[in-house]
Amino acid sequence: MKALATSEEYNLESLVEGLIEQNLYIPSSINTSTTSLPDVIHAVAKYEVNHEPREIFFFREGTIVMWNISELECENLLEFLKKYEQNRYMDYDVQSESEVMCYNYAEHGKRNHIKNGNIILALDATKLDKYTFSNAIAQSVKLGIWEASLDNYIDSIEFVTEDLKAGKKLKMTQHEVLKKQGELFALRHSINLSSDLLDTPDFYWEREDLEQLYQETCSYFNIAKRTRVINEKLNHCVELVAILSSHLSDRHHIRLEWMIIILIMVEVVFEILHYIDKYLS
């Protein structure tokens, strides 16, 4: 099983049309919210390999989870996906933050679980069981992309802390700081408002077995702890950028004050010259 986050969002409606036109997979939708639009597309390959189904879950938030898919088929799927991606991530981040796990089937009577880093499926595992595993793992790889994005952001402003420490003049303009603030709040919004990282999705509230499985999988990937850590880093970055914005604003006000003082002095000089000229004449 392999999971990757490739973009900010998929156009699932067009994706379904593409799958039907391709005629290699049978797509079906999974609605996990009250909206009429599907949140997830579940696709099953028309042709089996070794009597094991080949299944794919496409999540609207830009993640794909593939079961029993070969590397060659995975590459073809990723190429196919490009037409339906919005704001694609860099290939390096997509591959470095991916998750690969082995899975096999449990003994008779055993439930779905994770053991020693492997997914253990019950003999009677359903599509929703695989969806639950996929959902949690998709959250993990998406969080991994955001973690990498924040690390890149921190690297981009590291020189600022060094300049502040050394008492040097800041090398950023107000426009650049405003842009950095926008990047920061967009990332914060994605993590805390546009995802299910902070709480269990409503879909599991009336499905206790699936909820337990989802929480167990999230716990395996330390999603709650990683979310707390990334939010702490975000808070630190927000404070730093706020200091920069305040400092540049003060510097701008001081510049305006000096301009006003200079203009007043120029006006006084002209008045004096005018008075002297009038006196001499």
The strands making up the biggest β-sheet line up spatially as 3-4-5-6-1-8
Broad structural category: alpha+beta
Q: What's the tally of helices?
A: 8
Report low-confidence residues grouped into runs of 5 or more. none
Tally of strands: 11
Overall average pLDDT: 87
Largest sheet: 6 strands, antiparallel
Helix/strand order, N-terminal first: EEHEEEEHEHEEEEHHHHH
Give the amount of beta strand, in percent.
Answer: 15-25%
Q: How far apart, in Å, are the first and last alpha carbons?
A: 97 Å
Task: Please tell me how large the radius of gyration is.
Answer: 28 Å
Q: Helical residue percent?
A: 55-70%
Shape: elongated
Structural write-up:
This protein is an alpha+beta fold. Helices cover 56% and strands 16% of the residues. It is built from eight helices and eleven strands. The strands form three sheets. A six-stranded antiparallel β-sheet has the order 3-4-5-6-1-8, sandwiched between helices. A three-stranded mixed β-sheet has the order 9-11-10. A hairpin with a 2-residue loop joins strand 10 and strand 11. Helix 4 runs antiparallel to helix 6 and helix 6 runs antiparallel to helix 8. The longest helix is centred in the C-terminal third of the chain and has 58 residues. The termini are far apart.
